[in-house]
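tl;dr need the bound structure. longer version: we got a ligand (iron/sulfur cluster) that a collaborator sent over and nobodys looked at where it sits. i said id run it. heres the input, straight from their email, havent touched it
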Amino acid sequence: MIRAAEAEWRQLGQGAQWRFSNLATAVKQIHAGAARTLPCGAGDNYVSADAHGEFFACHRTVGDERFHFGAHPDGARRREFLAARQVDLQEPCRSCWARYLCGGGCHAEVAAHDRAGCDFIRGWLEYCLGFYDRVSRARPRLLASKRAEAPHFENVVEV
Ligand code: SF4
């Protein structure tokens, strides 16, 4: 991902638009000063359904009872699922410096592998912070345009 981001840096320097969405999303979030309280929109601004019309948090969790919301996606199980997964309630996320950029890790990954990927996530986000610093110093026009196009994070609060 860092090699891809360095390629993006070179392309941006030649006038290209953002193409690496993982990087652009992180940079936009940092620039907006926004805090992510959940890792993604699963169960929040989208759900997945199985062939029988039963709803689950996302496509990766279909068939897993831990992520089953029942036949009505707006029911209490979905709200309880989201309330329980706020990053400030998770361990060890509560004391992780990256928590408001990460949001607590992919629900499906955490269920399958606990938080084995945290060093990878923190390493990537540390790189993104450095990338943001480079952009803000050398190519602030990219941030001006990105602020204008600031994404709507369903689970992000301004701080
Ligand atoms: S990097 Fe790991 S510990 Fe830190 S917020 Fe993300 S999931 Fe939690």
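gonna send this back to them w/ a short note. Residues 146-154 have pLDDT under 50 and may be disordered.
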